[in-house]
Amino acid sequence: MGGEKFRFLFWVSSISSLICLCYGYVPVNNYLINCGSPTNLTETGRVFISDKLASNHLTSPNEILAAASNRNSVPDIYQTARIFTGISKYTFSVARGRHWIRLHFSPFQYQNFQMTSAKFSVSSQTHVLLSDFTAKSKLMKEYSLNLTTDRLELTFTPSANSFAFVNALEVVSVPDTLISIDPSIAGRPGTFQGLSRQALETVYRVNMGGPRVTPNNDTLSRIWEPDSEFLIEKNLVKIVSKISSVVYVPGYATEETAPRNVYGTCSEINSGDNPTSSFNATWDFEVEAGFKYFLRFHFCDIVSRALNELYFNLYVDSMMVVQDLDLSSYLSNTLSGAYFMDYVTESAKVSNRIRVSIGPSVTVRTTYPKAILNGLEIMKMNNSKSQLSTGTFLSGASSSTRKKNVGMIVGVTVGCLIALVAFGGFLILFKKRGKGKDGHHSKSWIPLSTTNGTTTPDSNVTTTSNSSYRIPLAAIKEATNSFDESRVIGVGGFGKVYKGALQDGTKVAVKRGNPKSQQGLAEFRTEIEMLSQFRHRHLVSLIGYCDESSEMILVYEYMENGTLKSHLYGSNLPTLSWKQRLEICIGSARGLHYLHTGDSKPVIHRDVKSANILLDEKLMAKVADFGLSKTGPDLDQTHVSTAVKGSFGYLDPEYFRRQQLTEKSDVYSFGVVMFEVLCARPVIDPTLPREMVNLAEWAMKWQKKGQLEEVIDQSLKGKIVADSLRKFGETVEKCLADYGVDRPSMGDVLWNLEYALQLQEPVVVDGDDDDDDNSTNMIGELPLRFNDYNKNHGGGETSVNVSGDGKGRFEEEDSSVGDDVSGVSMSQVFSQLVKSEGR
Ligand SMILES: *[C@@H]1O[C@H](CO)[C@@H](O)[C@H](O)[C@H]1NC(C)=O
Ligand SMILES: *[C@@H]1O[C@H](CO)[C@@H](O)[C@H](O)[C@H]1NC(C)=O
Ligand SMILES: *[C@@H]1O[C@H](CO)[C@@H](O)[C@H](O)[C@H]1NC(C)=O
Ligand SMILES: *[C@@H]1O[C@H](CO)[C@@H](O)[C@H](O)[C@H]1NC(C)=O
Ligand SMILES: *[C@@H]1O[C@H](CO)[C@@H](O)[C@H](O)[C@H]1NC(C)=O
């Protein structure tokens, strides 16, 4: 967060040639297409035309019109879809200038086409809008592009072995002045150049302090969502509504900029009429990292009774972007004048959050401290390759609060929650006429079982086995050059791991099980089962599997940066900063927290270790390897003979002693990982003096002495804020408590880690877990993964089976594995372990 700088873009202080407020804006181009339908359809006063009637717009190799059979609700644009089995194009003749392109998706099953598994890309002549996109449920995506030719071509390109679909689409002119570069820059240096060439994707459009605003109350048919679910501390603000007092001052914002319903409500700092109170209110938005964002703030001082009562500061990701903002002075001394400001993040976001805060001015004294925000739009900007999507975003947002809106928001989708949040209203609008029950999104998306993620629970075909995740052996051979030895990137107990690329270019990690291993078969099944039920941005996900010719092959997306372990020691990779390490811990803690609190049964991972935490190209952590995981904490209580499994050095001593498996065993192992992260050394290193061999014991001694800083990674010396280290140390200490009951839950660990991060790099007011708390099934697309990367990455962990009598007979499950500690024989390690396990 702190890393990204925000650059003051411009105040749009004068909108010269503005369309008048009188009777709304009439778009020059207004194409509304009801795809796949033979008839026109009127939705909230707008006519969506059949794309058969508009067929001159479309070129497609063959024509497949799909109608949902069992959706017997009132027809709407989501009842039909057009399916594309080859590259297809909609062509529109357009006036030059900025246009909205809105794509509506609501997958259902039609004949053999299960739209929830369709994977495809959508682009214009100039920009990639969606790439390798899958819609798991109903959603709308909104883009705005400045078209510079007289024709707009929207190309739908199915990914390899898949198809594309769309339920409805809109191409509508945007008023020229809505998003235009106004060169008047207030104060700060650094204008953003080239906004006119910039494609934007609306990710949030929020009405602070007010209800959802729907298209019929917005002259440009937009949706504005309420802000409460983004507020970090809801009780720090109060809601103010004075819609009738809004004034559109000529030359400033207009009704097109944002409607009265948006300007006329705000969230105001709730200072409780205490003249000395001082705090910020903060909104938190999840976004896709790797892109720049354009932020538009809407203000209207409906809280003051007179001029000069309101002076406040505006921050984005803790950076002050405007100090002592005095709205009336910008608006020629008009109170309650509508006003807006635009910002662009200076560089691509590193984190996946944007936090916006307001707080009273500290330099200008007023009777009561106040600060307001009326509306906010957040738009993703295309990257330098003109893409708005790289096909790697595993949808993010997730908070439980959002789930509450399910009725409106209709469901979660690959990479689209954001858009959903912003546009849920749209959907609703249409949905209301239907039955409005689309909260469903399934968690199962692969073989074994499926209640597919379609939004048509009433459709009778959704339970067909989801064989689309079964990948033919031939395709896997092609991807790995017939399991070419040079492609091996890891060897584990399960078998070898190959790097490969599917036909469509997706990089994958292919884990090929050793068919002889019975153990392997069980783990193969567990892994598929687990990963098919649990989808989360911090869990690696499976692309598919293959069980042809008694093969046991799992295909995951490739994790660019390998294991966490390889970044800590045993390789030449650059060292990670403390902040990066904390973020990685936070990410993996989220993944585990999600597993432990899943809505059905908690899942215990059982093999938490740094080699099972993988990092994507942005160093985002994902927990991998579910081969040993178990549902339900009681399994091992009833089956005490079950072998104790896990990895040495990480094994919970209580589990070891009593063979009672609970989530707290994962917490223990995670504590060990935290020490590993801090000290950057193997968890067991028999080459060291005896008291240092076992990392957990050794580091714990220093923690208890209050001298943890003595044993931290050299490269972190002097770089960790003392409080942050203290918090971290205390948290590990609790995780490593002898008894499970004394250990915190993963949720607490997560909270503490976030707090430690804030102590390191103060960000915003509060360290609440704003993200994945008991969230569930993320959706998403393609993360990747696999474990046991070790070969090239400095040695791997060895998984062992400990027989259930707890007496410490170890059987090496994995003889092929490289030693964890190079140059030390496994037997040495084992004997050390047997001793140290005696605790
Ligand atoms: C559908 O709308 C188009 C464009 O307005 C019109 O030309 C056509 O006649 C309409 N078709 C029907 C069946 O109403
Ligand atoms: C669109 O691009 C053209 C050519 O670059 C430019 O002249 C025009 O001002 C742009 N329009 C908007 C609304 O940005
Ligand atoms: C939205 O517009 C309708 C009329 O179109 C009006 O009755 C309703 O009050 C408006 N809603 C709000 C929140 O202003
Ligand atoms: C508000 O947030 C900013 C940025 O994080 C911080 O610098 C400032 O001290 C905060 N103000 C208050 C009153 O907490
Ligand atoms: C977005 O794409 C345009 C070309 O279509 C390019 O000129 C511009 O630099 C891109 N924006 C960014 C931030 O790279």
Automatic annotation (TrEMBL):
Q: How does it sit in the membrane?
A: Single-pass type I membrane protein
Alphabetically ordered keywords of this record: ATP-binding, Glycoprotein, Kinase, Membrane, Nucleotide-binding, Serine/threonine-protein kinase, Signal, Transferase, Transmembrane, Transmembrane helix
A Pfam family it matches = PK_Tyr_Ser-Thr
Ranges for domain Protein kinase: 483-764
Q: Which residues bind ATP?
A: K511
Q: Which residues form the signal peptide?
A: 1-24
Tell me where it resides.
Membrane
**Lineage from the top down?**
Eukaryota, Viridiplantae, Streptophyta, Embryophyta, Tracheophyta
Query: What Gene Ontology terms describe what this protein does at the molecular function level?
Result: ATP binding; protein serine/threonine kinase activity; transmembrane receptor protein tyrosine kinase activity
Q: Where is this region: Disordered?
A: 434-464, 790-824
- Biased composition (Low complexity) is annotated at 449-464
Recorded GO CC terms: plasma membrane; plasmodesma
Which residue ranges traverse the bilayer?
Answer: 408-430
Q: Which protein are we looking at?
A: Protein kinase domain-containing protein
Report the SMART domains cross-referenced here. S_TKc
InterPro entries listed in its UniProt record: ANXUR1/2-like, Kinase-like_dom_sf, Malectin-like_Carb-bd_dom, Prot_kinase_dom, Protein_kinase_ATP_BS, Ser-Thr/Tyr_kinase_cat_dom, Ser/Thr_kinase_AS
Q: Which organism is it from?
A: Microthlaspi erraticum
Coiled-coil annotated residue ranges, if any: none
PROSITE patterns from the UniProt entry: PROTEIN_KINASE_ATP, PROTEIN_KINASE_DOM, PROTEIN_KINASE_ST
